Amino acid sequence: MGEKKIRLKLTNLKKSYDTAKGKFQAVEQVDLEVYDNEFLVLLGPGHCGKTVLLNMIAGLEEQTEGEILLDGKAINGSDPRIGMVFQKTALMPWKTVMQNVEIGPKFRKVEKTPRRKKAQEYIDLVGLKGFEKSYPSELSGGMKQRVGIARAYTNDPEILLMDEPFGALDAQTRFVMEQEVSRIWEQEKRTIIFVTNNIEEACYLGDRIVLFSECPAKVKEIYVNDLPRPRDVISPEFLKLRTRISDNTDLAL
């Protein structure tokens, strides 16, 4: 097996904010390499700075210090090769599933026939075939997240960022969506960086799990997860990994 290709490299990444009470440090000296086609999970306590880190990668926030390299070149601001799925899907309520999914290519003035063909491929992939003409108000929470995922994939990003996308779902729907995202990733083999504060979710999804400290976010440890997919959440190996991570967290997640 050859050497893994580094797609994204974070070097000495820091983020601080000036507040009325003085300087607030959200992210402190993160050094991290993200490999091509891997499913990387960023795990840590709530409000520890994981989302801030993801926002810097997405170009939604500017780092205070440090460097973000994509394929060896610095990126500043948003990059079309990086897509994002948020916890709140922000679907346009007046648009159908198809219209929401095709919105990115439409803004780029891709012609209707090819953009709808691509949108349909991802609508089918996320399991929403037959709901193309439905509106968000007619969809469940899990279905809305599927639309958000299809919309992100239709933009054809090389790296997909996912910020706690299932945090607002009930436990059963959340596990179904975890299974679906794992299935889609195995089919697409696209680099994913997934943020969560749920240890079981991290162990189920991640090739590697980056455990962060409480705020300011610092890397505590990186766990390699080579358990076979689909993962058995009650297997001794799974429970052992989950316990190792749980024992090393700063706060109960």
Q: How is the main sheet built? A: 6 strands, mixed
Computed CA radius of gyration, to the nearest angstrom = 18 Å
Distance between the termini: 36 Å
Q: Tell me the total number of β-strands.
A: 10
Q: How do the strands line up in the largest sheet?
A: 6-7-8-3-9-10
Task: Categorize the overall geometry.
Answer: globular
Listing every helix as H and every strand as E from the N terminus to the C terminus, the arrangement reads EEEHEEEHHHHEHEHEEH
* pLDDT averaged residue by residue: 91
Secondary structural class? alpha/beta
**What proportion of the residues form beta strands (DSSP E)?**
25-35%
Count, helices: 8
Residue runs with pLDDT of under 50 for 5 or more positions: none
Helix content: 25-40%
